[in-house]
Amino acid sequence: MTSSAPAPQVAHLDADAFYVSIELGRRPELRGKPVVVSGSGPRAVVTTASYEARRYGVGSAMPASRARRLCPQAVFLAPDFTTYRDVSARMMKLVRATVERVEVVGLDEAYLDLEGLFSPRAAMRRLLAEIKSELGLTCSVGIGPNKLVAKVASDAEKPAGFVVLSREQACTRFAGHPPSLVPGIGPKTAARLAQMGYATLGQLASAPEALLAERFGPNLGRELSRRARFEHDGSVSSARKVVSESRERTFDTDIADPAEMRSVMREMALSLCASLERHRRRGRTIAIKVRLDDWTTVTRARTVAAATCDPDVVAAEALRLLAEYAPPRPVRLLGVRVAGLQCAPADGEPQLAAPGALEADQLALPV
DNA sequence: TCTGGGGTCCTTTGACCC
DNA sequence: TCTGGGGTCAAAGGACCC
User: Fold this and answer.
1) pTM for the whole thing?
2) Which of A11, A48, A72, A328 is 20 to 30 Å apart from A236, CA to CA?
């Protein structure tokens, strides 16, 4: 490398087995044992598994019933999101005391803009030590020239990893890994790529971009090609706008009784509106989601004249949409959503129309 | 093996307007 | 009058992420 401008440095900080670690903090007798945080119903899934439980094949998003079969001796704990949110807030406070620009992604991870830091690596080491001593949590860190490299690097040596890579090093190191290693390439896209003969990031990186564009559309095609080369120019942005809020519920057993569906829908609309009200949010688009017993998922939406968080309006519209769809089979999930959110006007003030002047950004895949 | 909940964003399609 | 193109908006579906 010669005289190119110094690459911006980004860190990705990711708490290891976050929920489980918090639980172990208050139940130290469980340390070293397989521990699983999951719901309790027949259709619950695993939220987090300790590394001991992972050795038995237990992993996130797996049905809890299967986790129990794989590891019957595991201790199953119900999630306590109130505490997790609290610990997360304390962790992010420590992060912000170290770095000015922080992009929080979920409760347990964040991107940090290291620009301007005197000694980024030393600063990150100190931050890790602080998080460990104050909260008892171990984190993994990835550092790279962009968010994509940082993210994949932080995942590479979990738990307690500390991996610094240039873009070129990332390309070399992960060339033999499947494309799904990269965020934004999920199972569906990975399967299509595999069918085209691109089973590794190295192969994908040398695929003709025109071919990818033809198969996946110009935006995603180009993005796949760039990601395979670990190119990414999204910046670390502290402010994200909430665009929708929802409630949904999966039933322990499917329901077929319309009256029961209406009752659940009403209940969720009330809870949703209470939260919208609390956050001074209103939205114009009211949508429902219905998942049938055969897993087909249908959404229906209607945009109303004025933004609202009125439970009567939201519930009535949701019930109307449900009646119009009239689920033809038993239902396993119902949901309600309010989108097109805007902040409520100050009392008595008329609401200005949203400018809607969003930047024409590049394809906004995660990372 | 039988798949949560809460989100974001993209693509496609169709309506409507100029 | 007919046709086409472009822009915008809304709806629906789907992929993906934590």
Assistant:
1) 0.89
2) A48
